[in-house]
Amino acid sequence: MAELISVIIPNHNGSGTIGDCLKAVFASDHGDFEVIVVDDCSVDDSIDVIKRFPCKLVRLDQHSGAAKARNAGAWQSDGDILFFTDADCLLQHDTLTVASEAVALEGPNVIVGGTYTPVPHDNRFFSRFQSVFINYSETKQAANPDYLATHALAIDARTFRDNLGFAEGFLPILEDVEFSHRLRRAGYRLVLLPTIQVRHIFNYSLYRSLRNAIRKAMYWTLYSLRNRDLLHDSGTASTELKLNVAAYFASALLVFGYFSSGNSVPLLLAVPVLALNVIVSRGLLKACYRAGGLGFASAATLYYVLLYPLAVGIGAGIGAVKSLGAGYRRREAG
């Protein structure tokens, strides 16, 4: 008999996606599971949508963030295995089966994660780029990942409770990164299975894609400076992405040098810098080609090399300034 798996979904104003999310969960071919949705003080009609499905609804009394919502769901779960996902993610038919079998096989000292499908739910260019980017970044070191993301994370329930769940007084995002790092330091092992997949609903425009890049880079920088691993190759905060940002700004300085001096040497130097960046990023660009063909891969290359690193660089700069400010305030308080 399969172990009971508890699917835990935090929700905040997710009425546009939570219905499709729950429909996908209940279409699972897994034999024994419960679904717990924790609503984090939504002001839309999320509750009405959630109540259409046979799941356990937990309502927080004040807006507290995803970490507390996930913990609240875990504390009220009955499952032997906990599976965390998001309100804008669609499980595949076999997601729960693959995840529960992996946890049962690996044992309570191993945390198992998954990733996004290369092709997202919506077929917009920027949504597809984001889904390919995350799938590639999270799976390239599947045997030894730096973290496991909560869009698809399976863990033995006792292990989760023994380690007190997600840090609630943390950054608004990246609680899954902190959780992964904390458990690995405690002696647990992380494993990412590319076969555990969820399809994400992005609905990304150019603006939303760039805004997400700025926000994620800002919090990644804050966390990485605090954790002293800024240059570490870590999933979506990959070495390739960091080199991409460095190459972008180096090329921009060289082009500026050309226009300010009239000397063609800086412009000539920018060409090999950009070419080297494309070579370093070839794994991601190949993944784009596999996901969408030559046309998509060509457009994704231009976006990734010429615009995306600007947003990431801006976010990283804001994060660095915030980190310096926080450090200064701590010194003043001390």
List keywords for this structure.
alpha/beta, 12 helices, 2 domains, 8-stranded mixed β-sheet, Spore Coat Polysaccharide Biosynthesis Protein SpsA, Chain A, about 325 residues, globular
Task: Describe this structure as you would to a colleague.
The chain is an alpha/beta fold and 334 residues long. The chain is built from 12 helices and 8 strands. The chain folds into 2 domains: 5-203, Spore Coat Polysaccharide Biosynthesis Protein SpsA, Chain A; 239-333, no CATH class. Strands 3-2-1-4-7-6-8-5 form an 8-stranded mixed sheet, sandwiched between helices. Strand 1 (5-11), helix 1 and strand 2 (33-39) form a beta-alpha-beta unit. The radius of gyration is 21 Å and the shape is globular. It starts with a strand and ends with a helix.
Number of beta-strand segments: 8
Q: Report the total helices.
A: 12
- Judged by helices, strands and strand pairing, the structural class is alpha/beta
CATH level-4 homologous superfamily of the largest domain: Spore Coat Polysaccharide Biosynthesis Protein SpsA, Chain A
Computed Rg:
21 Å
Low-confidence stretches: none
User: What is the general shape?
Assistant: globular
- Describe the main β-sheet briefly: 8 strands, mixed
